Structures are given as structure tokens and as C-alpha cells.
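Intended use. Records like the one below are meant for learning the mapping from a protein sequence to its folded structure. Do not use them to infer anything beyond what is encoded.
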Amino acid sequence: MAHDLGLVVRFEFRRTVRKKAFWLSALAAPVFIALVLTIAIIGNKTAIDRSSSQTTASFSTVYLDDSGAVNPALLTAFGAKPVATATDGIAQVRTGKIDAFFHYPKNLAAEGIAVYGKDTGLFDNNKYSAVADTLLQQSVGLHIADKSLLTLVQGKYAPSKTVTYDHGTVAEGWNAVYLPLGFLIIFMLSVMLIGGVLVNSTTEEKENRVTEMIRVSLRSKTLVVGKIIAILAAGLLQIAALVLPVVIALVWFAPALGIPLELGALSITVPAAVFGVVVLIGGVMLITGVLVGIGAVLPTAREATQWLGVVIIVVMIPLYTFSMILSDPTAPLVQVFLYFPLTAPTTALMMNGLGYLSVTQGIVVSTELLVAGVVAIGVAIRLFERGSVEYSRALTLKDLVRNRRMVRAGR
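Structure written out for the chain above:
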């Protein structure tokens, strides 16, 4: 049996990784992400350069200062000229005589600065308000003798640092979240990348009418388990090909994108690591059994793929409870998703990553998924024994009962 299992694993693995679609699906995402990151870096640098230049932009301006807060000398230095009324200033902009009109109302705190300008594009239009704000800030700064206070008023100070303690030790905060959430990402990638392969693996032989020949020399259990091992191994290879370039790109481009990524600060607790691994394994086993069973029951890959979409939707539904988990992990809906088998992996891995999965919950969910996974794979093997030779229609419950009676009767 071990020899036959090895043959099936090698055959299925080679057949899977030799397909062009396998590598296209694995490498398309990293290439796309690399292009997006490159465009984002270039766009980010351009936006910063243009934004910083807007505060010093030069254009013809008239103003009306009802507040008395803006220093006339600064306005004159900029080249701005006063107008008698707001109506006159707006009219000059509308007719194209000048580029911009700034109206500083009497109650600036309540009304804000009214800015009117010549349309120069969505981004460049911001230069008008940038200059108007700068003139006001500089005017206010002239009344502050202590320049250090001026810096604080302008908001030019280092961001605050928050330190929290958990049972007397410094809490890791978000640094303890990223690695545990990695198990969730791996699980999602597993479902999306190898789900279709798992479904199609049991329907291809039926569509090619070779199932009977295969089963002459191989037991159903050996064939199904071999397929699962091979496809999961190929899936791990595909995930590695997808994730590694993304991780390298993030580490390489993080400074350019302004992402505060410090790999040395990342951490994970022992319970989070253990539950992450066990829930991931149990969840993959369960989904694998379900998808292989679907492929065994249905006669064609087209019909099986439709049910694959349903399974993926059910698995991903808990993602919409992310904010609910953050605010109230004990909410009834969260608890239902946590213990319902098909939604348990996603919910448990999210709660584990965010630090809300208790030891008791982790043990219960891990045990549930491992047991459900073994049962699902066992049922998938039984379904394959009967459904692998049913070419024209989907397997029904009556067929399964009849097959079970025939097996018991020794027929």
C-alpha cells in the first residue's frame, strides 16, 4: 500500500505542477503586486513633491480680511491685493482677471477660509487653500514669541508613543498580531489556490472514463489519500511561490512606502503558535474532505466548480465580522461562526491573531476541526468509491444507502 501511495503522490504532484495554469496563478499575483508597489512608490514621491511645492506656489491673488488675523505685510510680499467686497473678489476670479481670491471671515474658527480659484486640475487646485492656510499660520506665528510653542501649534512634533502592560509586562500590541494572522492568510490562500484542484482531481478521471482502470490496481483510499497529499504539497509550493516574493517586496519597499516594518519587533506567543498550526491543519483537512467529496459526488468539473464557489463564500463570511471581533469577541454571531465547522477555521484564526481566542476555545475548536477533518476525508473516500463510476448524474443519498447495503451483503 505504501508503494502504491507513493506512486499516486508522485504522479499527482508532477501532473499538477507541470500545468501552466498552476504557475500562472502562483506568479501572476507577485508580478501584479510588484507593479502596483512600483507605481505606488513613484506616485507617492510625486505626490509628496507636488504637495510640498503647493505651499510656495505663485499665482495672482486678491483677498478680503474681515478677521484682521492675517498680517498685511505677508499678503503684500506674496503679491496679494485687497478688494472691497467678497462679491468683487469672486467676480474677478470668475471672469479670469486673477487666479484666486481668499476671504478670511470675521469668525475664522466657525466659518473657515473661503477660497475661490481658477480651475487647474483636481490636484493642483489644492495649492490655493494651501497658500491661504500658510499665510494665516505664518501670521498667527508672528504673535507667538516662543518659537518652540509655534512648532507645537503647527502640529510639527513627534507622534505620541503608547506603552501598555499585560500582567506586569509590556504588551506587544500590533507586533504580536502580524505573525499569528499569517496562519489566516495561509489558510485563505490554501482554500483559494488548491480548492479548484481538489475538486477537479476527482472529476477528471470520471470525465476521461479511466476510473475503472485505475481502481483495478488501486484501492479507493490509497487513490484519494495520495491525491490529497500530492495536491497539498503542490499547494504549499504554490503558496511559497506567491508569498515569498510579496514578503521580500514588502521588506524591500517598506521604507519607500512609509510602512513602519520592523521584523525584529514581531513576536508570537506559544499558545498562539500552537493553536494557529493546529487550527490551520484541521481547517485544511476539513475543507479538503468537503471539496474532494463534492468532486466525487458530481459527474463533471463544471458542476463541482459551482459548489466550490459556495464553499469559498461560506469560509470567507467570517471576515466580515472582523470589526465585531475587535469590539466584542463574545458577540453571539462570532460564537456561532467560531463553532460551526466550515466557518470555524477563519473565525478561530482571526481571534487567535487578535489575541481574543482563549485556551479553552482554542482546545475545543482545534479538537472539533481535527475530528471533523478526519471524518470529512473518510466520508470523501466512501463517496469516491461509489461516485467515481457514476458518469452521467450526481450521486444521491439513495445510491449511497444502496451501495452500503451491497457492501454489507458482500455483493
